[in-house]
Amino acid sequence: MATPASAVSGERSWLPAEARARERAILEGVAGSSPDALAGRLESLIEQNRTIHELDCINLNPATNVMNPRAEAALSASLGSRPSLGYAGAKYEMGLEAIEQIEVIAADLARRVFGADYAEIRVGSGALANLSEAAHTLRGSAGNVGAFRLAVLLGRIEAAGKTGDAGAAKACLALLDAEYESTRVALLAAAKSAR
User: What are the counts of helices (DSSP H) followed by strands (DSSP E) for the chain?
Assistant: First the structure.
């Protein structure tokens, strides 16, 4: 008999029912597997995912298209796992001299290739994590003052940052200015009427 998912990982009650059921089914399928067997299963699934997205289907979502092999090789050569926050010459961490040059040269190349006035190239790893942390802090503050719509939006941004979903983060960020302004106006009106 398979071990229930809750005994394997702790069931996440905040997930929608269909997501909990899917997680449970996946975990029941690997219950009792050794760490080596799980690592082998992950490697197999990684290859299966590559086959699905590069050979078996046509991806219409630009975020899931086949990556240029040279760009993929660059990201897998530790560039994709190194946060690079700040501009060249003003980074927040040490040891990014080569990454600074990569970002500046790649941005210049992109600008030239696309005939753009400006281009920005940044390694995304740490940026989304920092976005998530900032959104978490602001979400708590918004909730504390009763700005619940703003708190919900910030919660979505936090979740997107945690999962690395840059598209979802961008979509939510596009709504943030208007929601912040609406909250600001409401809070000022409430403060004025309380006087």
Answer: 8, 0
